[in-house]
């Protein structure tokens, strides 16, 4: 069995706060606010915030970016004895990457009913047919994560509504111009 | 429904040959021989061969590298109207990345009983709870892919056996040196 980091509840809260900080960085550049940090020996060794739109890369999810950074920093694909903190339940791709990187411990915030592969749609971290299992804690500062996501999507919808109204007014004045 | 490329059986065989060529490139640098190509409008737009050990990156699988390259070339994370050819059944990470990139069509060679997420352990491409499904053809030139993998692992085991024998002989001559 791989060694699993032992963290106090204070440390867990602290590292999830740092993951939420990464989520806010995503939000600040117009990305869906999701963030992650990877921890080893009580230190943050890598960070990731969702950059799918700005990078135009399907794999630029917070978790995958943090895993890539940690692989580069530690010069190994094996992230044994690390813990990943992420604000939203990982999707299939990220859950698969966590397994491939042999991360033994994951703390996540809100559940993702539409794409979550850890406790919503799938339970891949408990699958003993795979060559690695992941100890998981769910719901860490979930309300903060949910609230970030809710505000982000409300804002997007408000923008869409205003743009639609603007187009109507623009069309109206164009038509008036043509008729005058 | 996303547009799905329409390929002739000759094209399918040709593109899988190119994926097998990528697998041989992996083998040539000591990596597990797995290769992939991504095709759009009858042209290869990206290639990938497994580079996990040489990159020391958990995500350096053939499929993910091809997807990243295609995202960069086309400047979009949406790989609509493309087809992915890969010599081995995708793992959870790569299958998830294929879904995230909205690839509509996948042809793969050999099944992966230990980690395959498409028809062995999971069937994620048919999951209608997810926001994207993938049309899949299994077993394209599977024997060539299996044979590459089999030879690779036989070679690894042969090397391990010879190294063990060498160590024994080295220890023997060291001990003889000490006793003389």
Briefly characterize the structure:
Chain A is an alpha/beta fold. The first copy, chain A, has helices at 9-28, 52-55, 62-74, 92-100, 142-179; strands at 35-40, 43-49, 82-88, 105-110, 135-138.
Q: What key attributes describe this structure?
A:
alpha/beta; 47% helix; Cytidine Deaminase, domain 2; 180 residues; EC 3.5.4.33 (chains A, B); 5-stranded mixed beta sheet; tRNA_aden_deaminase (chains A, B); 17% strand; homodimer; CMP_dCMP_dom (chains A, B); APOBEC/CMP_deaminase_Zn-bd (chains A, B); tRNA-specific adenosine deaminase (chains A, B)
Write the layout of secondary structure elements.
The structure is a homodimer of 180-residue chains.
Chain A: H1 9-28, E1 35-40, E2 43-49, H2 52-55, H3 62-74, E3 82-88, H4 92-100, E4 105-110, E5 135-138, H5 142-179
Parallel strand pairs in A: 3-4, 4-5
Antiparallel strand pairs in A: 1-2, 1-3
Helix pairs in contact in A: 1-5
Oligomer: homodimer
Instruction: Give the radius of gyration of chain A.
Output: 20 Å
Structural class by secondary-structure content of chain A: alpha/beta
Strand proportion of chain A, as a percent range, falls in: 15-25%
Pfam families (chains A, B): MafB19-deam
Catalytic activity (chains A, B): adenosine(34) in tRNA + H2O + H(+) = inosine(34) in tRNA + NH4(+)
GO molecular function (chains A, B): tRNA-specific adenosine-34 deaminase activity; zinc ion binding
Function (chains A, B): Catalyzes the deamination of adenosine to inosine at the wobble position 34 of tRNA(Arg2).
